[in-house]
Amino acid sequence: MKVKGFKHIATADTVPRGQGMYIPRSGTGGGGEYGTDITDDLRAFAMTREPVAYRTVFTVAHDIFDNWFKLELEGKEDSDQSENFDQKIQAELTRLNAKQELTRMAVYERGFSWAIIVLGYVDAADSLMEPLTSPQKLQEIKAYSSRQVTLSASDLDTDPNSERYGLPVIYNIRRQGTAAPLKVHYTRVIHIATRLTDESDYIGKSVLDPIWDDLGTLRNIRWGMGQTMYRYGSGFPDITFTGAELDDINDWIDSGAFQNLNARTYFAHSEDQLLEFKGLQGRALDPMNYYLPIMENISCGTGIPLAILRGVQAGALTGSEVNQGEYYGLISDEQTAYEDALRQLIDAIIGFIPDNRRTSPISYKFNWNSGIELSQQEKQAIALQRAQELDFLWNWKTRNEIRAEIDPSLPELSEEDGGKDFKTKGFGTQPFEENMPFDKSQQPNPLEMKQGASYLVTEVKPKEQKHSS
After folding, report:
1. Which residues pair with 150 in a beta bridge?
2. Of 37, 175, 224, 305, which has the maximum CB count within 10 A?
3. Structure pTM?
């Protein structure tokens, strides 16, 4: 079949339409709008304007893929073969700019509940709307958010006997500068939704939804704190007119002398007038008593330690290590959740690597690089413990066996060079009696060391059985 060529995926178009998270600037009677519907436009606003939402979505998404991963073939003892496999796949992932697109996908999926990665092939189909046909090369990949994709009932599989019943068949992607959407067949799409509920088989939940009301409350508290500082932080002018009548006070007001009174202006007056700036004078509420419970709720809803949400302070080493351990435990869970999508991408890449074209699937696993960097002291302590462990194992393992554990590529030593030696004679496969540190025949019998110790050994005589004729 003739190859038609590469279908360019293009760039999606998104038009923001949200008003932002609600702040009752007219007063407190409006409430916080708890329980109202959350739109993707409001989520997008929060992700870019609300610091905690930004950290929950963007920072976590970057931490998931920043340290990347290595691939290891399962059931293969030859480490060179696994390394060669990993190098080939990593080269293709680099060519496809996979790290950037996967990070974008994580941002979209976390923020808007689901996302897709479109695979741009060189294949024999006439358009992206047709099923993938005789692919020759994976040319590019691109991530899209649910805000950029439109799905109607006609785009879903309605065959009750189909394995994809209820799932999208065609994805409609809005493109910049083009009125008509880009229609893409599902065989060219990786669909990602890691927080599914019983409401849908392909639409998940945003990580912002469980903490949405707390985010709104936190935003209102900060707005109120800012307004308090702006209005009352430097105090407000309090003018006393000694012995003045109401008409005298009105004349002063009409003169314009009080139109711009603040800490950076002046008010000229006689000894009969007194000007003071009066503020809250310690009578304000402590905001931390209200701010901290909100942050704790958000920490509970996101799984991110409170100190990480606020920013770990330098100097508290023990606390920082604990918080980092908890945080990267969360990151590890998120990495595992995305491995299914990664396998779909890597399986698509494997098919175009000449040495890996085969009928049977290749079994491999992900080894994610840790996000916690050990100090030099910790690395030395681990190295010392490993050396002590190998030294202990040498008591019943040969030198060659120990060398193989250290580095399988090390050559075996000959018997003359001590390759079959143990650390201590008397261990391993060598006969114990021949290497006793003392002469067994010269050791005294404990029973003979004490007179009258015959009671330790009791002679048992068999009972006489009576015979009857």
Report:
1. 172
2. 305
3. 0.70
